[in-house]
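User: Please predict the structure of the protein below. I'd like the answer in structure-token form so I can feed it into my own downstream comparison script.

Assistant: Understood. Taking the following sequence of 114 residues as input:
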Amino acid sequence: MTRVKKGMNALKTRKNVLKKTKGYLLGRRTKEKQAYEAIYHAGTYAFAHRRDKKNDYRKLWNVRINAALRPLGQTYSKWIGTAIKKNVLIDRKILSSLAAERPKTFERVVKFVA
């Protein structure tokens, strides 16, 4: 049987795949088969971690709010519970930025809820 060389499209695809794996270790950056698998896994992790990032930020906001509430004699869990009961519609992201950048305003919000 005669030898068939890779066509133009296959070479172009291979070049693009190997370009995406630049910086990977060992065969993952040089061997086509391993590179395909590395790209597949990288994409899967990227998708999952985009979701995780939202979770991480929410945890960070909660910690910041709690840290700002402690000197005012409150705890996060009790304060957020009363804020929800009183229909305070400021989300955690805004509360966190207020606590970090504008402590006086944050203190007024805390007094309004408490």
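That's the full token string. The mean pLDDT is 93.
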